[in-house]
Design brief:
single chain, mainly alpha, about 210 residues, Ferritin, 2 strands
């Protein structure tokens, strides 16, 4: 639940201070999430290792920049509504409803498995915030829906590394980063084994 904030002394035309304050509180939680996500993505960018290092390392940084920009958009909307956006590290820790990212130096696919869970949570909460502002503030709703388009695209980029040729997802049904990281590693090992077997078979028949 979004933390209760003081009412603004003024807000945008056609909204009451009560509605403006409620929308700003919803947005503050999304600001916490975007700030946390871009820091988490940068952490992953620094800590991936393994055969897919360069492709994943370079895939993550554009996501960092876009999500950081979304934090700025949300913060400016809070200010427009008449309240003060809180972007300090302490505000993120105090206001978030999730635990800190738990994976350090690890195989690229393990990190992507964990990020699948992270993105699921972010998207679900962003969609809920969009629904909660649909009737009260169409401008904020439009902002959140627009951001969801790109966030969900980034999630697809992550999941494409975890999907088999048959369409099954290695992390399907998993809800913790650690479990999803293990599933990602196992998927990577199985894929490497299949590829190795294929190359061995090819060389033996040539």
């Amino acid at each position: 639940m979004a933390k209760r904030q003081p009412l603004p002394r003024y807000t945008v035309p056609s909204l009451t201070p009560e509605v403006g304050g409620k929308v700003a509180a919803i947005l503050q939680q999304r600001l916490n999430a975007m700030n946390d996500l871009h820091l988490t993505l940068k952490h992953v960018h620094w800590n991936v290792v393994g055969p897919h290092f360069i492709s994943v390392h370079e895939m993550i940084d554009p996501q960092v920049e876009v999500i950081r920009g979304y934090a700025d958009e949300i913060a400016e909307r809070i200010a427009t509504l008449g309240l003060s956006p809180k972007g300090t590290p302490g505000a993120i820790v105090e206001g978030r409803t999730w635990s800190d990212y738990s994976i350090d130096r690890a195989d690229t696919i393990a990190h992507l498995g964990a990020l699948d869970v992270v993105y699921q949570g972010v998207i679900e909460d962003h969609r809920k915030a969009a629904e909660d502002t649909e009737e009260s503030d169409t401008v904020t709703n439009d902002l959140l829906v627009g951001q969801l388009h790109q966030i969900e695209l980034f999630h697809w980029f992550i999941r494409a590394h975890l999907e088999s040729a048959s369409g099954s997802l290695a992390t399907a049904g998993l809800t913790t980063e650690s479990d999803a990281a293990v599933a990602g590693e196992e998927f990577s090992d199985e894929s490497a084994g299949v590829n190795g077997q294929d190359s061995t078979s090819a060389s033996s028949t040539s």
